[in-house]
Design brief:
The complex is a heterodimer of chains A (about 150) and B (about 425).
Chain A lengths: L2 H12 L2 E6 L5 H10 L11 E3 L7 E5 L2 E2 H13 L5 E5 L1 H5 L9 E3 L9 E3 L6 H15 L5
Parallel strand pairs in A: 1-2, 1-3, 3-5, 5-7
Antiparallel strand pairs in A: 4-6
Helix pairs in contact in A: 2-5
Chain B lengths: L8 E5 L11 E7 L2 E8 L7 H6 L3 H9 L6 H16 L5 H29 L3 H22 L8 E2 L2 E2 L5 H27 L1 H7 L7 H6 L4 H5 L7 H4 L20 H25 L16 E9 L2 E9 L5 E7 L1 H13 L7 H7 L4 H4 L18 H14 L5 H13 L1
Antiparallel strand pairs in B: 1-2, 2-3, 4-5, 6-7, 7-8
Helix pairs in contact in B: 2-3, 4-5, 4-11, 4-13, 5-6, 6-11
Classes of the chains: A alpha/beta (about 150), B mainly alpha (about 425).
Chain lengths: ~150, ~425
Amino acid sequence: MGLVKKIVTWARIKSPWILHFNTGACNACDIEIIAALTPRYDLERFGVQLKGTPRHADILVCSGPVTKQIEDRLVRIYEQMPEPKFVVAVGTCACSGGVFNGCYNIKGGIKSTIPVSAFIPGCPASPKAIIDGVVKLLQSLEEPKK
Amino acid sequence: MHKPEPDKFKIPVGPQHPALKEPEGFSVALKGEKIMGLEIRLGYNHRGIEKACEERTYIQDLYLIERVCGICSHSHSTCFVQAVEEIAAVEVPKRALYIRTLIGELERVHSHLLWLGVAGHEIGFDTLLMYAWRDREIVMDLLALITGNRVNYGMNTIGGVRRDISKEQAEEVLKGINILEERTKYYIEIATQETTIIKRLSGVGIISHEDALKLDAVGPTARASGVNRDVRYNDPYAAYGEITFNVITDTHNDVYGRTLVRVKELMESYQIIRQCLKKIPDGPILTKVPRKIPIGEATSRYEAPRGEDVHYVKSNGSEKPERVKIRAPTLANIQAVKHMLKDRFLADMPIVIAAIDPCFSCTDRSVSLENPGDRNKEIMTWHALRTYSIEWYKKQGIDFTELNNNLKNKLERR
């Protein structure tokens, strides 16, 4: 592995920037994601920072089932993110469609629209589960030790 | 399609925007920094819950309805359960009603603290966001202690509640409430004395008393314009009839007024929780209700943290409801936002929208009225609807004839 690549991977793991996008969730997962970023749980101690635009983000954190209205927007936001990009699906709805599975305006989980790197189940996923999921994703990015 | 207007500049805000936590679209017509017009585009969060309710049984619906909105989940499920209980004519045990009230108030505390943080964030006061959300964890712990989950509590069931509250839990709640009360006093001090907050929020998002009535604003938005309206007080449900509390109103008419109403409502909520724990009677927490609900229809009202929530349930005698209709408080308030932002500056937009405490996952319901015979004709005229309501209330034993005559005379005299 070249030196530049090493530095980039190191920087990515030590300070991933996330973008939160609600794809039709009931707000429960969204408030838990914000709660994970506030003092009690403080996801920022892992260098995770919430950003406002997809162009700055490494990780797209999605909550909720994909509604037909939001589908095109989700794809557009995903395409605007720079490579390499990762998607985390937070909550049971984002994983599989959950309780809304079968509703006429629902396409299913996030996986039905864009590729997903990590699934965090729970209704809603608790901040502890969200932190666990994010840390596991970051660990998987590390180069395996020889 | 919109015609391009040369002197106006249109910018889209949303569905993904740093200032908005939920997907909703706004199209803002600008002239310089001034907002000339605002178009609101809802529906990104529409999941088709009302239709899904018709395909599930009443018990399954309860858990679906909780997920209308994760912040006021107990409000929606209580509102639905009240309507079903009214149709089935079930007497709910007193203890269950008190537990519902208790959870409802704890939820209001968490929702208002959440709003305080978000409002701080929208005006660039992130310290307030971190403080308010740190304190909010106390009430989240209490909710997790009583119900077993931080959000989406699953407490209600038809005929009562699913979990009892023990003495130890009640003591923990009182302890937590005492800490929160101290913290809230600090927030009231900030809101009334901190110059940056007062200057940033005063005079922003003004809606007069008359306009608030005309646009049918509900909840803290209306109460900050001096509309003395609170379902808990005007039409008591659950255990509110036996509890004394004040309806907080304010006459500032702006975002500052709404902030004051919410922080003062927190103090009232603590009082209600204390009274609940003191007055709670012993006894069962659940009445058994058959799976099939008799034919009938009912409307139920509930004062959610954001305002009046209305549920309509129609039953056809089977295990599944025939129709469920939800009118969430944000739908009533969103009309007022357009009015508040007219001729204001673009920079005020995030805080004005945040000030009604919008919840778009509650709001995104779809309505379509169609008359197969004549598409231009309404299914029910305004007059027919009014006559129907008068007849309906007569059947319930409430007679509006005298009141209507008085009103008629008054109008004629004018």
